[in-house]
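FAQ

Q: What does a record look like?
A: Structure on top, sequence underneath. For example:
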């Protein structure tokens, strides 16, 4: 008798039965009150001053004023929250929840929207 046969019953039962757990992703994750979450930006309010970048202890933020981009390397961010304190526009916040896991270490790049052109009268 092949060696896998003793497990065949269990294998088939597991294949055709409901999941043992009903947690994430079926049920949305509930984050503890004191979990640190992640930094988000209201990039339309950002004035590209770079204060967050200069004050970020692990240098996780890059601000490119010419390109109009605000970039965060979430793997470097330690969720200290200091950037949210120094931002003069208060457009940075730490919100609950974590980023979707991925297979690559990517930076998150936010583009400041171009100002609307005023119509001439
Ligand atoms: S929370 Fe702290 S580590 Fe993360 S980007 Fe802001 S200043 Fe940097
Ligand atoms: S400190 Fe605030 S306004 Fe200045 S670049 Fe950072 S996010 Fe933008």
């Amino acid at each position: 008798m092949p060696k896998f046969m003793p497990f065949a019953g269990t294998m088939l039962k597991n294949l055709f039965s409901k999941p043992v757990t009903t947690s994430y992703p079926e049920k949305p994750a509930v984050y503890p009150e004191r979990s640190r979450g992640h930094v988000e930006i209201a990039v339309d309010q950002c004035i590209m001053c770079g204060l967050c970048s200069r004050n970020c202890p692990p240098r996780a933020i890059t601000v490119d004023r010419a390109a109009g981009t605000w970039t965060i390397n979430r793997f470097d961010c330690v969720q200290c929250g200091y950037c949210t304190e120094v931002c003069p526009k208060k457009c940075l916040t730490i919100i609950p929840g974590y980023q979707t896991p991925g297979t690559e270490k990517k930076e998150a790049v936010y583009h400041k929207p171009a100002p609307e052109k005023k119509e001439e009268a």
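Q: Is there anything notable about this one?
A: Residues 39, 56-58, 60-61, 72, 77-83 surround iron/sulfur cluster (ligand 1) (CB under 6 Å).
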